[in-house]
Amino acid sequence: MNIVAKQLNGLILLQPKVFGDDRGYFLESFHSDRYASIGIDAPFVQDNISKSVKNTLRGLHYQIGSAAQGKLIQVIVGKVLDVAVDIRFGSPSFGKHYTVEISDENHYQLWIPPGFAHGFSVLSDEAIFAYKCTALYNKEAERAIIYNDADLNINWKVSSPVLSPKDLLGKKFSEIEKDFIYNTEVL
Length: 187
Fold this sequence. Notes:
The protein is mainly beta. The protein has helices spanning about 30-35, 165-170; strands at about 1-5, 10-15, 20, 25, 45-55, 55-65, 70-75, 80-85, 95-105, 110, 115-120, 125-135, 140-145. The strands form three sheets. Strands 1-2-10-7-12-5 form a six-stranded antiparallel sheet, with no helix packed on it. Strands 9-8-11-6-13 form a five-stranded antiparallel sheet, with no helix packed on it. The relative contact order is 0.25. The chain is about 5% helix and about 40% strand. It contains two helices and 13 strands. It has one domain: Jelly Rolls, CATH 2.60.120.10.
């Protein structure tokens, strides 16, 4: 696995080694020792897969308290614009976002530690999106920031996003509570 970039005090963009031939390809999507050696050493307790059609926008989601999740994301089929927003009060990158196109062609993975809101928009006809989580889903701990918040000014690269009713009810960024406080000792 190669580290492509480190962003926003904790995000890590990775590209697993891909071994291809006439039959297709093989890649190792996770290896606990190798990932721990670069700082991704929290135990993963839940794996999720979503299938979405073009222009679907999911996010910006996060969970708080003991349910706060780190996520290791990848795209199995298709292409998405992946977005992570630093919501750690006091962080040098608080309120900044990182976007990257992740696809079944570039095989990128993105490590998103707790303290980031996360979302993605589907740029291909469909996308199958997979992610490992460091905490179990907890409905009571779930939070969302509205995707089109003017303060964040995210270009999702879709003109008419398809959203869930829940995502339409996200808070403005300026209204989020101080659920995450930046701690330099954790980095």
